[in-house]
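FW: tagging you since you asked about this chain on Friday. Here's the raw sequence from the shared folder, copied in full. Didn't touch anything.
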Amino acid sequence: MLLLGMLRLPESPRWFVSQDRVGPARQVLRWLRPTHRAAEDELDEIRRLDDAEPDSRSGQWAQLRKPWVRPALVAGLIVAAFTQLTGLEMMIYYTPTILTDAGFPHVYSLWANVGVGVVYLLMTFVGSRIVDRVGRRRLTLVMLPGAALSIGAFGVLFFVQGGKPSPVLTIVLILLFMFFQAGGIQVVGWLIGSEMYPLRVRAAATSLHAMVLWGADLLVTSTALTLTGWIGLGGTMLVYAALNVLGWVLVFLRVPETKGRSLEQIEQSLRDGTFLPRSSKQS
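HL: got it, structure written out here
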C-alpha cells in the first residue's frame, strides 16, 4: 500500500528549485495550490530563499552547525526527545508488568493493556484531526499538564495506599495519561520534524530527529523496569510526571507555532532572529 501511495506522490517543488528545475516546481505547486496566483507567489518565495544561501551546495551536516539553523534544530529535537521521555512508550510496553507487580491479576493487567492500546489509537486519530485547527505548540502545551497530573497522581496513589492502589483508580489514571499523551505531543512529534527544518538541511535534520526520537525510546524502555526496581513504581511514575513538566517548560520556551506558516516563512523567521516564541510575539 505504501508503494502504491508513493506512485501518486509528486516530487517536492523545493527540491525541484534546488536542482534549478523551475518548470516542474511550478507544475507541482499549481496542482497543490487552489489558484495559479498562490502557486506563483509560493514559487517566488521558494526561489528567493534558495538564492539567499550562496554556499548551499555544502554538506547538510556541516550546515546544521550554522547559528541561524540552531534554534530550529533545538526546538525539533526537544519535541523528538520528549515524545518518548514523557513515558508513553513505557506505558504501552510495560502496563501488564507494572500492574502485575502492583498485585493485579494477570488477566486484569492484560485487559488494561488492551484499553491502553484502544485509547492510543482513538486519541491519535482525534489529535491528527484537530492539530491543524488548534496548532502544534498549543495542542502540546494544553495536553502535557494533563499527562503530568495523571501519571503523578498514579505515583502519589501508590504511596498513599501502601503499594496496593485501587484497581479502578489505577486504570482510570493510566487511561487518562494515555488520553493526554496520545492526543498531544505524540501527534506533534513527527509532524514538527517535517515543518521546522530549513530546506537545505532537512534531510540531515530529519535523520537526526528520528535518531533522537528512537534513541529516547531506547533509553526509556531499557531503563523503565530498572528504575522501578530502584525507586519503586510510585517513584518511577513521579519521575515521568516531572519529565512531562520539564517537557512543557521547554516547549513553552523553545518551540514556536508552525500552524499556518509555510516552510519559507519559518526559514525566514530563523534568518531574521524571530523564530523563538517570545521573539515572534515581539516582532
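FW: The mean pLDDT is 86.
HL: agreed, and The two ends are 45 Å apart (CA to CA).
FW: great, closing this out.
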